[in-house]
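ESCALATION

Customer reports they have been waiting on this structure for their group meeting. Please prioritize. Original submission:
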Amino acid sequence: MSNPYLLLTPGPLSTTSSVKEAMLKDWCTWDDDYKQIVQSIRSKLLQVGQVSEAHYTTVFMQGSGTFGVEAAIGTAVPADGKLLILVNGAYGTRMQDIAKVLGIRSETLVFAFNQKLDVEQVNEALERDDEITHVAFVHCETSTGILNPIDKLMKVIKRHRKIAIVDAMSSFGGIPIAVEDLGIDYVISSANKCIQGVPGFSFILCRISELAKCEGRARSLSLDVYDQWRVMDSEPGKWRFTSPTHVVRAFHQALIELEQEGGVEKRHERYVLHQLALVSLMEKAGFATLLPKSLQSPIITTFKYPLHSEFTFESFYRFLKEKGFVIYPGKLSEEHVFRIGTIGDISMEKMIELGKAVSAYVTDIMGGQ
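Update from on-call: job pushed to the front of the queue and completed.
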């Protein structure tokens, strides 16, 4: 059965038929065949992150991407540690909320939603407070689509010898990240993002030498990255608690398809082309982007509401859904915006169809611009 609409969202996203078909078979969590799939995924993810098995390991965590972020922060930062959180959007703010709930000492540097994280201000904060032990930030801030300067940020963080926790939820697998060369200690993403699987678990690439220090640190029983790692390594392929077997199998198929496409570099090229096409089509229809091109990622693009009395997001959403496209509402309180994703199993032909649908809305509902 074909999908009733195409998901133009940052995850969940539209997946291939073969990824969906991978979920049609039931799997036992204790079965050797299934555990071998788990181990294969762990290894493949290290390759995607450009790290060596001697220095890094992959740990899975049941749940959404936020489960993985909370698990990493709650496990990595010791009781006497202090976390510097860099915020320029909703998902950086979520890290701040996590630290507060877990009782982790923290300091936050807040930047405007349309400003990339400022490396000099980060450097000043680290020079000012030598109690800071860990730094956490979002690579691609999905609330706007802004892409933060991960290379420059990591140079500063490592110059100060701090532990880096990077939320690469919407970039890992879609934008090349040389995790080991950059010196990232923990990088977190999710099954339903740029690898193009379905929702159900997150994963964390961890520097082994740092993770080995984390025994007993976790503020949660189930969100303990250290204990999950010990079980996965001592009983290869086993999760501590029930794993999402169908999702894991679909993710394995998605990783195979990433390789068949030509790896992260080729997928990144496709995402870039789709995002550029999207902006061109939307601008022709009279819509303006929130961010300048210099700050924009190829993952998701935020557009401003047009200044037209007949436009409402609700009517726009319904119109596009009837045409076969689902988009995302905005996630900013300061601006009236909506978002359109360009990741997933999307073709250029579909982007062109979307442009026609948007133009039809402008003509039929808004009476032209």
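Sent to customer with the following note: The mean pLDDT is 95.
Escalation resolved.
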